[in-house]
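Note to self: keep these together.
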Amino acid sequence: MPRCLEASLATAVSGYQVGGGEYGIILELTNTGSASCALYGYPGLGLEDGDHHVLPTQTHWGATYFARDPGPSLIILSPGQSATSSVAFAGGGPGKQWADFLEVTPAERLPPCRDSAVVWRRRRRQ
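Structure:
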């Protein structure tokens, strides 16, 4: 089964969450291709500033305040099907820069994938 690549995925945020000192989103990946494809494990994530410069981050896979972690598994997406993931953010504070964009690599645990998509922009407070 071929891996789902960024070119055949629509990536979107389908919800926002706040609680327990964390901010979260529901990340949704939809197969827009004409054939089934595979995802395995957790998406790769990166944060960028407003000029798309990569920010230093630490990614931890597992449970969040918003969702339990069922563990990695193989997901086959037929054309038009979607998979979701709960993503939580903690950080900011004195001397820390807030991210403006989230970069997603769809198949982090399959052989290395370099394709990614910027899918989320933080809402600025007025």
